[in-house]
Design brief:
Number of strands: 13
Number of helices: 22
Structural class: alpha/beta
Strand order of the largest sheet: 3-2-1-4-5-7-6
Organism: Lampropedia aestuarii
Keywords: Methyltransferase, Transferase
Shape: globular
GO molecular function, one term: methyltransferase activity
GO biological process, one term: methylation
Strand content: 15-25%
Pfam families: Methyltransf_25 (PF13649), MethyTransf_Reg (PF10119)
Length: about 475
């Protein structure tokens, strides 16, 4: 879709402005499965939204791509698509370009540019028409003026019916770190010209001293103390990006929705699949409250804010669509039936004991149990290889309960036990497998074996089950 709507040009000047973002230390490479095209398409299909197709040519833009691990993983799986990544750090862009070359990924364009500078982005991106625009994390770390520039960029370059994925620190969970983060920034400013990694470690030592000394903020909020202890063991480079940006901010979902509404983008759901299923992601005692809110006609901003309170949400993965387009009932059913699924290795470890009647899922609201009678038929069917939704829907457990399978598959995918995949020709599946293996080898050679092992291969051969 829209593959000829724009041209790509390399920014001729590497920007050096760093007053709004940490650039002196590398942002560690991470993989976020929720950013993969197949995942987004499956989430949106589950929600009944007409998502841009990922089995044909499509276009993809990532804002704040870092060294582009997520983008490269997507590009390896979708050779027919075009992927563009923008980041302020020349170091990360050069690293990503080197990995792309080493992996033979010709459908990648990585550009060092400042998303807060409309002139620079206009030189880099001409025309309009990206089917997907994604950004993870940076929205919470940049200055208000840069966030507004991001809104305008998405409004200008997202194609009609295109989808924007936005992950950001949210109220109320992340807001509990606000005072801690402010002290860390003040301490980092005191340390002057030392590296951000050194500054964040010194700042954490100060905060931990306060916590261990019984500072009331942590005494009154035991969960915050546990989070601080967890953070203290994390990588300094990551923590510098997470906590030392002067414009760090936890956002209210209603504010983000309002900002996106100004660019004709409507909230359509979460890329955290289980959060679209109230029965599994909200406390049982609150189900009646949310049902009442819906019957009272309260809008998405009201309901999502209440959900954030119910879950003590600290990170949101929002999905917005330009000129949101729900699927008709018939089209929704057809797209669901066409979905393809495979069993993942983690499902074996999830199998309960012989006398168990349920599988427990750890969630933000505590353990949630899935009846084994609902889950086991899917596991059993997928043991022999990939299956379509249509095939699974004919199993006795689901034939008389057609509304059960869709949320169940979304939940099992979120748990990491199954995956939505594409069924393609044998030759195309083999081509994708080689591309993914080459990227995995590139990342492993860079000392990122754990990251390489997380890069999925999302194509299977139509000639046989695998």
């Amino acid at each position: 879709m829209h593959s000829d709507c724009f041209a790509f040009t390399l920014s001729p000047v590497m920007p050096t402005r760093s007053d709004t973002y940490i650039t002196d230390v590398a942002y560690p490479a991470h993989f976020h499965r929720e950013m993969m095209p197949q995942w987004l398409h499956a989430c949106l299909t589950g929600l009944g939204i007409a998502a841009p197709a990922v089995d044909a040519a499509f276009t993809w833009l990532e804002l704040g791509c870092g060294s582009a691990c997520n983008l490269l993983a997507a590009a390896a799986n979708y050779p027919q698509a075009r992927f563009v990544g923008i980041d302020l750090s020349a170091r990360e862009i050069l690293q990503g370009q080197a990995w792309a070359r080493a992996s033979g990924l010709e459908n990648v364009q990585l550009v060092c540019a400042d998303v807060g500078d409309p002139t620079t982005t206009a030189q880099t991106l001409t025309g309009s028409g990206f089917d997907y625009i994604v950004s993870h994390g940076v929205y919470s770390w940049i200055a208000p003026a840069v966030r507004e520039a991001v809104h305008q960029l998405i409004g200008r370059y997202l194609a009609p019916q295109g989808v924007a994925y936005l992950a950001y620190n949210s109220h109320p969970g992340a807001a509990s770190l606000s005072a801690t983060q402010r002290l860390m920034v003040l301490n980092a400013q005191r340390l002057g010209n030392s590296s951000s990694s050194a500054q964040v470690r010194d700042s954490l030592s100060l905060v931990m001293a306060l916590a261990k000394g019984g500072a009331g903020n942590y005494v009154e909020q035991p969960a915050l103390l546990r989070e601080l202890e967890r953070i203290n063991g994390m990588d300094d480079s990551y923590l510098a990006h997470e906590f030392l940006n002067a414009h760090w901010c936890a956002h209210h979902v209603s504010d983000v929705m309002q900002a996106f509404a100004t660019i004709d983008c409507q909230y359509v759901g979460s890329a955290t699949a289980i959060e679209n299923i109230n029965a599994l992601s909200l406390p049982a005692k609150l189900q009646g409250v949310f049902a009442h809110m819906q019957t009272q006609g309260m809008g998405a901003a009201h309901i999502e804010t209440a959900k954030d309170i119910a879950r003590h949400q600290n990170l949101r993965r929002d999905l917005y669509q330009k000129s949101a387009t729900p699927l008709s009932e018939t089209a929704h059913r057809q797209q669901l039936l066409a979905q393809q699924l495979v069993l993942l290795p983690a499902a074996q470890a999830a199998q309960p004991g012989a006398n168990a009647t349920a599988i427990a899922l750890p969630t933000r609201i505590g353990p949630v149990e899935l009846p084994l009678a609902q889950v086991q038929p899917i596991f059993d069917a997928l043991q022999s290889g990939s299956q379509s939704y249509a095939t699974l829907a004919q199993l006795p457990a689901y034939r008389s309960h057609p509304g059960l399978l869709n949320p169940l598959l979304q939940t099992l995918a979120w748990a990491g036990w199954i995956a939505f995949v594409q069924r393609t020709s044998h030759d195309d599946a083999q081509r994708v497998a080689r591309r993914v293996q080459r990227l995995q080898a590139t990342l492993s050679a860079a000392g990122l074996q754990a990251l390489a092992s997380r890069v999925p291969c999302l194509s299977i051969s139509a000639a046989r089950n695998v």
